[in-house]
Each structure stands twice: as structure tokens, then as C-alpha cells.
Amino acid sequence: MSRKLTVVLLAMLVLVGAMGLKTVVVTHGDGSLVMANGSAPLPPTPWKNGSAPLPPTPWKNGSAPLSAKLG
Amino acid sequence: MLGAFEYVVWFLGALLELTVVVCSIAKGSFRRYLAINVYMLAASFVNIVRFKILFTYGFRSSEYGYFYYYSDLLLTIGLYFALMGLYSYVFEEMGAEQYVRFGALLLLLGTAGFSFAIVQQSSSRIMGHYVLDSRIMGHLVLEASQNLYFVGLVLTYVLWGAMLKLRETRTRLIQLVLALGLYFSVFAASYALRNLSTSLNGVWPYLIPISGCLLPLAWAYAFWRIPEDARIVPSRLAVVPR
């Protein structure tokens, strides 16, 4: 049992370390991607639809308070 | 548009991936290093399909983009399992294979959960509520692929530390792990340098695709030139105080 708990602890430590490293790297990055799978050319991400600014969300109707749920 | 250089390096990379499998079969190591060989076979197959999609739809098409990033996640998972296979070989004499498998699965699920949490958080912040559309699925795939890359990077260094501590002597295993460490490190270093220095912007379009050929080249060398029973003196790897 203690061995399994040790494995869980090590896995969590590695996960925290890796995510911390990623956060440090990406925060200071230019927004490009780190890909490590072969030599194929990296395409632009298809779900970033151009450079147009994001529109305001249509379901936030001004500063009016939200109505209470019915029913 | 892609030039002749990109096509040549891409083709070379795909060829080297197949060479790893051929060398492994020729030396009778296919089953012993099954995860590595399956990963290399999958990478070759994905490259062929990428070629096909690129020529049919074009480089900037969404078909190529979607296939590239979705297949990249699958390949990163494959590379992760190849790395876990190396962990199993290092710890096989300690009888810790089941713990390695358990830890690998736990870490993979943890990474997937973490990626999902990040995407869910950012999408609900932008959209006001959470909707699983293709754009968010794309972000999830990209996020998981990136996170798994960093997990792989950290795990490779941890494995190398464990090998030094255990005084691992199997030359081929050392070569395979060091090649993987070099591969991850080159991408991380080039990413860091790209952000630190803009004066080298002309170099990266050439360096990064060439880096993609490093791993299959080093692994093909390891299978072809280094016999399974070759041993290296641990003192040549690190100075250990007596």
C-alpha cells in the first residue's frame, strides 16, 4: 500500500513540476508552440480564425441584474 | 508555402523513422522494445497520411491543420508510452514494473484532467458558459499535447537521474534514454532561444525540422550499432564519490 502511495506522490510531483515548467516557459514565450513529433511542417492552428478581435458575448445584456430563475 | 528544404527534411525524417523499425527487426529487438517500435511505425504512418492530406488540400487548409494537431496528440501519447517502456527496462530487475504502469497511467490521466481543466476554465471565461465545440476541442488537443510534452521532458530527466543512481550499464538503454533527453531538450532550448533572441529568427525555420530527425537517427544508430549485451562502465557517465 505504501509503495502505491509513493507512486501516487511521485506522479503528482512530476505533474506539478512539469506544469510549473510549462507555465514558466509559456508565460515568457511568444505564443508559439513547442511540438516534438518528427520533422513535418507545423501548420497554423485551424481553430484560430484569423486576427479579428473577439466580439462581446451576446448573452451579457448590459449591466442589468440577472433575473431570478423561474420555477 | 513550403520549399524544397521542408519537403526534403520531412521525407528524411519519415525515412529515418522507418529505418529505426527496420534496424530493430534486423537485430531481433522488435519485441523487446515494442513501445518504441510501435511509436516509430505510427509516426511513419502518420507522416504518410500527412503527406497525402497536404498534397490534396494544401498547407494552410483546415484539413491538414486538424489532422496535424490531432495526430500530434496521439503521437505524443505514443512517445509517452515509449518512455514508460524505457522506465520498465530500467526498473525490471527491481520487479517494479506494475508500479511503473500504475504511475504512468495515473500521470497520463492527471495530465489529461489538468488540460481539460485549463481549457474549461479559459473557454467559460471567454464564452460565458462552457460549450464543447470544435474550437474548444482543438484547444484541448493542443493543451494536452503541450502538457504531455513537458511531462515527458521532466520524466526523461528523472529517468536519467535514476539510471545514474542505479549505475545502469546497458549501453543501448543509455543511448536510447540520452537520445530522448537530447530530443526533448533541443526543442525546449530552441523554443527558449527563439523567445530570448530575435536576431536568430532566420535560423529556426531550418533548425526545428532538422531537430525532428534527431530522435529516429539516434535510435536507429542505437539499434544498428550497439548490441543488446554491450555494457559501459558507470564511471564514464558520472563521477560518483566513493
Total count of helical runs of at least 4 residues of chain A: 1
| Estimated share of beta-strand residues of chain B | under 5%
Class computed from helices, strands and strand pairing of chain A? mainly alpha
Rg of chain A, rounded, reads: 22 Å
Kindly state the number of beta strands of chain A: 0
User: Which percent range describes the beta-strand content of chain A?
Assistant: under 5%
**Average of per-residue pLDDT values of chain A:** 69
User: Which two chains touch over the largest interface?
Assistant: A-B, 40 and 65 residues
Major beta sheet summary of chain B: none
String of helices and strands of chain B: HHHHHHHH
Task: Please state the average pLDDT score of chain B.
Answer: 86
The oligomeric state of the chains shown is heterodimer
- Give a short account of the largest sheet of chain A: none
Query: How far apart are the first and last residues' alpha carbons of chain A, in Å?
Result: 50 Å
N-to-C series of helices and strands of chain A: H
Helix content of chain A: 25-40%
Per-chain topology:
The complex is a heterodimer of chains A (71) and B (242).
Chain A: H1 2-27
Chain B: H1 4-26, H2 34-57, H3 62-91, H4 97-127, H5 134-165, H6 171-196, H7 204-211, H8 214-225
Could you please describe the fold and organization of this structure?
The complex is a heterodimer of chains A (71) and B (242). Chain A is mainly alpha-helical and 71 residues long. Chain A is built from one helix and no strands. In chain A, 37% of the residues lie in helices and 0% in strands. The longest helix of chain A is centred in the first third of the chain and has 26 residues, at 2-27. Chain A is elongated and about 45 Å long. In chain A, 20% of the residues are buried. Chain B has 242 residues and is mostly helical. Helix content of chain B is 77%, strand content 0%. Chain B has eight helices and no strands. Chain B has helices at residues 4-26, 34-57, 62-91, 97-127, 134-165, 171-196, 204-211, 214-225.
